[in-house]
Amino acid sequence: MTPPTVAVTTQFTPEVHVPALVLGAGACGLSAALHLQARGVEALVLERDARPAGSTSLSSGFIPAAGTLAQQAMGEDDHAEQFAQDIQAKAHGQAAAHLVQAYTQAIAPALDFLQQTHGFAWQVLDGFLYPGHSRKRMHTLPERRGEALVQRLDNCVRQCEVSVLTEARAHQLVVDAQQRVLGVRVQRPDGSHESIGCGTLLLACNGYGASVDWLQRFVPNMVGATYAGHVGNDGTAVTWAEALGVPLRDMGAYQGHGSWAVPHGSLVTWALMMDGGVQINRLGQRFHNESLGYSEAAVQVLAQPDGLAWCVFDADILQTARGFPDFVDAEAAGAVLHAAGVDELAQRMGCPAPVLAQTLAAVQPGTADPWGRTFARPLRAPYAAVKVTGALFHTQGGLDVDAHCRVRGADGQPLPNLWAAGGAARGVSGPDVSGYLSGNGLLSALAGGYLAAHAMADQLEEPHDA
Ligand SMILES: Cc1cc2nc3c(=O)[nH]c(=O)nc-3n(C[C@H](O)[C@H](O)[C@H](O)COP(=O)(O)OP(=O)(O)OC[C@H]3O[C@@H](n4cnc5c(N)ncnc54)[C@H](O)[C@@H]3O)c2cc1C
Predict the structure, then answer these.
(1) Is the CB of 445 under 6 A from ligand 1?
(2) DSSP for 119-151, written as a single string
(3) Residue with the nearest Cα to atom 32 of ligand 1?
(4) Which residues lie across from 372 on neighbouring strands?
(5) How many Cα atoms sit within 13 Å of 253 on the Cβ side?
(6) What pLDDT, on a 0 to 100 scale, did the predictor assign at position 206?
(7) Over the Cα atoms of the chain, what is R_g?
(8) For residue range 7-54, what is the model confidence (pLDDT) as tens digits?
């Protein structure tokens, strides 16, 4: 595979030229294409795979947003400022403030546009709050799967006759001496190359979770961990950025997940923990405050003997969990074990029964929890458990961008015609794993896609760029 490079030249004679080129057909790229189309801009989406998928299709498809029509319909009082506070609280005040503000304001119009113009039937998850969210604001399509989100976006893009060129991996970014993007060179599966020129370019090709080289530099503790994201997150955008001298920000940040079923290899919803479940290692002990978040839990689980833990819960929580397709898949694959009481549970988990009994007995309202968690109720037999490890889902660092997702150069000024959004740009999770608030990934993808598309359209409408 040809590695990503940047060519600086004035000699570029592409076969095709489009006003707006979008690189990557995940949630960011496809939604941006729909906004561009609504603004009357001709856009072309390039995708390396045979069909749009990306990490978006592997995700649960839950998108946090404040002040949407869907929230209003369920009577949930929420607003962008509250959402911004929640993001910063999770990121210990270290998330990029201009992006937090821009994304929390843009995500409601972005989702409302998809509802009103393209018929997306958003539902807001009810019944429990994801860690760090002070309001019910997790939006999802009825299928509750990222795959459905991509399929829906892809169908809409095709209905609107926006061109999507698949099996087209962009390997070379072509710029002039002033860092104006002229276009990209694309490699096809048969090894042939094509050149595509553009007036504006959006990098929507996600981060570097699939690149061992980039992980070794910035996220070394997850190099050996399970990677649950898409293989296309190979660091194309950050490689180009480095060649251009564009600053990279928050490169140590990522979405981990402390509940990846083994050996089945599927996500087990963190709703189990938020509903009262606990994580227990093979010594029969709890080891962290599960209510802080699933991202940092990945590190906690990997630090346990064999890098493994058990998510332990009871029959009430099992009912909640069965409302999540990822859990249904895990259960169908045989990942969930059942036990009538503590002794059977200990035997099936392979841990000492007296220790496990003591651990479960301490799960009580009003007890002083060593990790600072508060329990609303005890866990009651019969029990259920899933063996899990910690996994890397996607990286949250990326290109430095302004509040319109324009890529900024080393002097802090925007480059002439380059945008980055979604996983390609720096996120809103601060500098490390502990700052990831549930849904920051798709928030960045859909809000960033919205902001970038409108800014690209604005620029293309200016007389000198038209
Ligand atoms: C198991 C799992 C569950 C998750 N659940 C959630 C969730 O519920 N909520 C949430 O907010 N986030 C979740 N995430 C994170 C979320 O999936 C990502 O943050 C989000 O999908 C990023 O969207 P994107 O459009 O930026 O990237 P992607 O969806 O990865 O799309 C990028 C596209 O670019 C293409 N591409 C890459 N390089 C090139 C190139 N050189 N040329 C052409 N095409 C290229 C790729 O093939 C890919 O299709 C989850 C992630 C995982 C792995």
Answers:
(1) yes
(2) ----EE--SS--TT-SS--EEE-TT--HHHHHH
(3) 205
(4) none
(5) 28
(6) 98
(7) 23
(8) 999 899 999 999 999 999 999 999 999 999 999 999 999 999 999 999
Q: DSSP 3-state assignment of 4?
A: coil
CA distance 113 to 118: 7
Res 246: pLDDT: 96
Residue with tokens 């090894």: 191
- For position 184, what pLDDT does the model report? 98
> Is the pTM here over 0.85, yes or no?
yes
Residue whose CA is at the smallest distance from ligand 1 atom 15: 441
Q: What distance in Å separates the CA atoms of residue 292 and residue 432, rounded to the nearest whole number?
A: 14
What does the pLDDT read at residue 10? 87
Paired sense of beta strands 383-395 and 254-261, if any? antiparallel
46 near 184, Cβ under 8 Å?
A: yes
| Residue-level length of the chain | 466
CA 54 to chain centre: 11
Cα–Cα–Cα angle for 437, 438, 440, rounded to 5 degrees: 70
Cβ contacts of 184 within 8 Å, gap of 6 or more: 21, 23, 46, 170, 172, 173, 174, 195, 196, 198, 201
Give residue for tokens 């060179």. Answer: 185
CA dist 266 → 36, 69, 101, 150 (Å): 35, 32, 33, 19
Picking from 419, 26, 390, the residue whose alpha carbon sits closest to that of residue 205 is 26
In this predicted structure, what is the pLDDT of residue 464? 67
235 pocket-lining for ligand 1 (C-beta < 6 Å): no
> At residue 215, what are phi and psi to the nearest 5 degrees?
-65, -40
Give 448 Cα–ligand 1 centroid separation in angstroms: 13
Tell which atom from ligand 1 comes closest to the C-alpha of 236. 41
419 bridge partner residues: 202, 406
60 lines ligand 1 (CB under 6 A): yes
Contacts of 268 (CB under 8 A, 6+ apart): 259, 260, 261, 311, 321, 326, 327, 330, 335, 386, 388
How many angstroms separate the CA atoms of 122 and 205, rounded? 25
User: How confident is the model over 54-94, as pLDDT tens digits?
Assistant: 999 999 999 999 999 999 999 999 999 999 999 999 999 99
Query: Does the C-beta of 422 come closer than 6 Å to ligand 1?
Result: yes
Residue 271 burial (CB count, 10 A): 23
Which of 35, 44, 56, 167 best tests ligand 1's pocket when mutated (most atoms within 8 Å of CB)?
Answer: 56
Q: What's the gap in Å between 333 CA and the centre of ligand 1?
A: 25
3-state SS assignment for residue 170 = strand
* Domains of the chain, first to last: 5-250+398-465 (3.50.50.60), 254-392 (3.90.700.10)
A 10 A CB-CB count for 96 gives 21
Which stretches of the chain score pLDDT less than 50? 465-466
